[in-house]
Structure prediction request, 180 residues.
Amino acid sequence: MTISTSGLEPVTQRRVPRWAERLAHAIPFMVLPSGLWRLAVASGFSMGGLDDAGRPAVVHGWGAAYLVAVTLLSEVIALSGFALVRPWGELTPRWLPFIGGRPVRPTAATVPATLGAVALILIWTVGFWDVWSGGQSSRMASPFWAAVFTACYAPLNLWGPALLALAWAYHRRRAGRHRG
Prediction:
């Protein structure tokens, strides 16, 4: 299934396009700014957010733990895009129980990746509708903080289309329609 150029490092069965490799590396960086924002809020900084009384909004306890969990989960999901450009997205690692060493069916990767990409597109289109239509989804202390919030969360709008492009490239490569 995999070919080794040096005998040490497995490579994909067919060459991954350079743009897909770069895009897979870019996806975690699309998710990172919002994660840093959430980690700052979880650490007790308001990041310009205001509560209903107009005071700086601070998150404590379970709310902070939730923000950390969402951040970690988002980054893990973003890193899963590498499965579409790495050998372990074509042949499961041998150490996995029951399925180790077996080829991955192309649809087993492209269907979840495509559904995930469509879900991300819908989530961030709806989630950012107020921002893109001129409003703001939450109360911010100043236009500066609103701009920082937007700059941190706007890259998430690219995550879905980027994952969709990777799923398409994976499907073309694995289905045998694309050479080189």
